[in-house]
Amino acid sequence: MPQSDFATFTELLRTRTAELADQDVHIHLRDTRGGVRAEHLTYGELDRAARRIAACLQQYDVARKPVLLLYSSTVEFLKAFAGCLYAGGIAVPAPMPGEAGHGKRLNRTSAVLKDSGATVVLTETTGAPEVALWLARSNRQDAACVVTDASGTADPADFRPVAARPDDLAFLQYTSGSVSEPRGVMVSHRNLLANQESLRTVLRTTGEDVFGSWLPHFHDMGLVAHLLHPVWLGSHGVQMSPLSFIKRPVRWLQAIDEYGVTVGGGPNFCFDLCVRRVTDEQVASLDLSRWRLVINGAEPVRADSLRAFADRFAPAGLRPEALYPSYGLAEATLVVSGGTPGTPHTERLFDQAELERDRVAGAVAGRAARTLVGCGRPVGLDVRIVDPVTHHELRPGSVGEIWVRGASVARGYWKRPTESVRVFRATLNNEESNFLRTGDLGLLDDGELFVTGRLKEVVIINGRNVYPQDLEGAVRSVSPALTFGTGAAFSVEADREQLVLVQEIRLAGVTDEGLRSVAQRIQELIGKEFDIPAGNVLLVRPGTVRRTTSGKIQRTAMRELFLQGVLRGEYEVLTPDVRALVRADDELLGEDLLRPEPVEGVRPW
Amino acid sequence: MTTPTSRHTPAGTAAPHDWLLDRLSLYLRRAPDTIDPTVPLAEYGMDSVSALSLCGDLEDAFGLEVEPTLLWDHPTVESLTGYLCAALPGMSERLR
Asked: Where's the Carrier domain (chain B) (predicted)?
């Protein structure tokens, strides 16, 4: 049955599971003491488990209500996701509470529980003690915790099919928004089916394709492209845990080889990790010739990362044209644009100074140039480049905010009607309505989309979006000497994207050793609570961090001052790459020539 | 890649210490003798990806299962070495 005949993803699931009962839908590779163990799930088993879980869920009246899904195993997750759809509920995937940030204050799963208002939580036997304890600590003993892989939960025969409509929600995607203000993207069945069709169009996927991923199942690219797209096609995917990939990147490549994976990818950093950590001997033992689409998305795509990966794994049979940059976001369900399979991706050199003024010009000899990787052509969506202030479409050759419109643009943010109207139903040129504002900046060049930066001040490190206000709040909590100071968190490009934390400190009575200890505690806290490195910390005098008259922190201005080398800390720690970038002149000029120039009244040297 | 390559002394705490410095110098991209054993590794730019990589190395090289939070509990070379010597009484033999 062709996919276009289905009105909901649930209908598709029920048909696929009947048609392909004996075939694998999913293989989960689990790390054990004895090595890697493969757990297979067939379409038939998926259907039986989903009916059993749905029968159980129907006792809780979950129709059109959010159900939180907390799993480590993607086999159990997939069963629960299907069970949730069978019962007419809204699936809400989230990380296990223990993996969602170490501090209680910043735990993403706690934030998702609260924001979604879910009263039913599904988990697996191995996760049950952790989830029960977390619910008790969150004072949510009222929430029902259902262990879906325990025998005797319910009888599949008790399941009563629910008629879902195309505009009912299939799931909430909580990758957007800060931890303090999480945003659940409402993805309807119509959105999901439309984006699946777009994925097929742009990737030219068929039921013969095999998917291979280490991405978390609660990540939009992990869920929509690597877990659900195989189901939609009637194919199967192989999955390992993010932890297991980070520990041994070669395991992902070995799985791609062993299972004949043809499509699989992740954010840019994972390719750098493979290049750095896979040895020559391991490369020699791999056959990556069947990997036809190495998808690079979810964070800015870097030309040098693509080149290094292609070179490193060419001896393993990897074809350079397999590298596949793409662009997408949860608010558009997933994919927005991608290249043409089997043809090399596009790279173009632009004049850097012009780009910084939001204009597009080719590189000129003798002037700084920036290489941008093309993210292919829009698929299934109307994409425009727009002035973010006037909301007028810009002329070709301009950099502006990327706006998109079409069937896979999600329905909005859960329980945030005002913000949803602003973000998902923007009006272009005072006449065309229902555009999604992506918050990303880019340009269209001969129909190809190039992403140049971000309008919103989100920091993306190791594929994760981190919001500056969350970081700044955490930094201030480290010491009473910081409580009344202002901070600015931003990222800079130095070899890779790196975090910079600037924080005002009350200096009275603080020794040099005291400053150092505060900086260390900041690094430790950010590492623990956000799981990202805080390599660069500047403790500055009160009044240094610029704010608008309404009190908004001017992070972009602070970033500029830092990059010009004029923003300096009373105490600062910098990584070698960042030091080389912003303190390059120190050795030439002598550091005391530049210090201690106050940042107020900056001179552009 | 996880086979230690240099300067392992047969006994005492020197072996885990040198093995660690070898690995850390790779992840931190700096010479082993510039890593002060009492300075938190986060100050040298050690991030969670490198910390997890080190956990993988420990499992491969010594069959030692460690918690992913190892480096938060033992943030310096000194404290990591102490932990390893306690967890691996026979480590120096296996290293040879």
From this structure: 14-88
User: Can the peptide bond before residue A596 be classed as cis, meaning omega within 30 degrees of 0?
Assistant: yes
CB contact under 8 A, A247 and B56: yes
Could you please state the CATH topology (level 3) that the domain comprising A459-594 is classified under. Answer: GMP Synthetase; Chain A, domain 3 (3.30.300)
What is the ipTM score, two decimals? Answer: 0.73
CATH code 2.30.38.10 region(s) in chain A: 347-454
* Whole-number percent of chain A with pLDDT over 70: 94
| In the predicted structure, residue A78 carries a pLDDT above the cut 80 | yes
What DSSP element (H or E) covers A323?
strand A323-328
Residue the block writes with tokens 């009275």: A508
B36 in reach of chain A (CB within 8 A): no
Query: Which residue in A523, A537, A571 has the most chain B C-beta atoms within 10 A of its own C-beta, making it the best mutation to test that interface?
Result: A523
**Domains in chain B, CATH or no CATH each:** 41-96 (1.10.1200.10)
The pLDDT value recorded for residue A588 is 47
Residue A382 burial (CB count, 10 A): 14
Beta strands in A417-477 (DSSP E): 426-428, 432-445, 448-454, 459-461, 464-466
Interchain pair B40, A462: CB under 8 A: no
Inter-chain CB proximity A532 and B59 less than 8 Å: no
CA dist A317 and A257 (Å) reads 11
Residue A400 has pLDDT above 50, yes or no: yes
Location of each CATH 3.30.300.30 domain in chain A: 459-594
Residue A506 CB contacts under 8 Å (≥ 6 apart), including other chains: A481, A482, A484, A485, A542
In the numeric block, which tokens belong to residue A238?
């192989």
In DSSP notation, A464-519 reads EEE-HHHHHHHHHTT-GGGTT--EEEEEEEESEEEEEEEEE---TT--HHHHHHHH
**DSSP labels for A186-249?**
EEEHHHHHHHHHHHHHHHT--TT-EEEE-S-TTSHIIIIIIIIHHHHHT-EEEEE-HHHHHH-T
**A89-102 tens-digit pLDDT:** 999 999 999 876 65
Mean model confidence pLDDT for chain A: 90
The model's pTM is 0.83
Say whether pLDDT at A360 is over 80.
yes
**Average pLDDT for residues A413-424, to the nearest whole number?**
95
Least reliable range by pLDDT among A60-64, A72-76, A559-563, B57-61: B57-61
CB of A285 within 8 Å of any CB in chain B? no
Instruction: Judge contact between A379 and A201, C-beta under 8 A.
Output: yes
pLDDT at B83 over 60: yes
Q: Which fold has domain A347-454?
A: Luciferase; domain 3 (2.30.38)
Which residues of chain A are within 8 Å of residue B60 when distances are taken between CB atoms? 248
Which of A23-27, A303-307, A444-448, A473-477 holds the top average pLDDT?
A23-27
Q: Does A284 touch chain B (CB under 8 A)?
A: no
